[in-house]
Amino acid sequence: MRLTEFWAKMSDRFGSAYAESFAHDHVLAELGGVTVEAALARGDDAKVVWRAVCEQFDVPARER
User: Fold this and answer.
1) Beta bridge partners of 34
2) Radius of gyration over alpha carbons of the chain, in Å?
3) What is the distance between the alpha carbons of residues 6 and 59, in angstroms, rounded to a whole number?
């Protein structure tokens, strides 16, 4: 998954303003206790990060 696709999915799910805030502030245990921004910055695959977000928020399969 490309980063542009990742951010599009985040915006679709949370809205563009909240998606950025969420990525900056919300720590996910599924990512080892770091934020989305930190996970992407350390080089985690965007698809892995998106799956972690989906798990945390019970995103329906059709939106994953």
Assistant:
1) 28
2) 10
3) 14
pLDDT in tens, 4-58: 999 999 999 999 889 999 999 999 999 999 999 999 999 999 999 999 999 988 8
Q: In sequence order, which ranges of the chain are alpha helices (DSSP H)?
A: 3-14, 16-25, 36-41, 46-57
Q: How far apart are the first and last CA of the chain?
A: 11
- Per-domain residue ranges of the chain: 3-63
Angle between helices 46-57 and 3-14 (to 10 degrees): 20
Residues in the chain: 64
